[in-house]
Amino acid sequence: MFGIKKKQIETKRTAVDERLQHVAFIMDGNGRWAKKRGMPREFGHKKGAETMKNIVRYCGSLNINCVTVYAFSTENWKRPKNEVDAIMNLLNEYIDYLYTVMKEDDIQIHFIGDKNRFNPELKARLEKAEKDSQNNHRILNVALNYGGRDEIVHAVNELIKQGKKEITEEDISSNLYTAHCPAPDLIVRTAGEIRTSNFLMWQGAYSELYFTDVLWPDFSESDVDKAIEEYYNRTRRFGAVV
User: Which residues are catalytic?
Assistant: First the structure.
């Protein structure tokens, strides 16, 4: 799957319902990676994009059916214009790349977040990639112009448009950008920051969190293995007593 021969890894599974279905990545540290090498931040984002391709494919080889990556937040517009422009150019290149692997890797792509902030041409390309991959099975969510609070507000406003007078948890869950996939079992953040930074706030309520000092461009298959091994060494209680 995802063009890579499936690799078997040794894990400790404490219960059948703990099978890892959805992993989400907060891809932090691109700028610091570039700065350490005396390069502009844009160089770090380019290397980080290559890492993202490798990690997504590797997760597929492990039969993880849903991957979410935090690519560009609602707050990232505050960054210098040249850096934002570089990220947008990388996004266009990534869409081109997706068309070379979507069918081969059976990827169903979802760009989660508010697409209205993007220029009409880019927005159309995002929507076309989603439509063209809708019959594929493995899910890749790329969070763009995404913020967890903004997503919840969006869901509530959608429910108001539907005429809802009382709102349940299920109502909100079914109107989130990620309504098409299960909540993340595991959220991984790189680069040593110990916070989730407005990412999947609703969906991640009971996710296992894994933090590593590795900068995203250096994040490797073995780092994925470490995160998964840690996940299977934990007991998920979901508020109950086990």
Answer: 28, 76
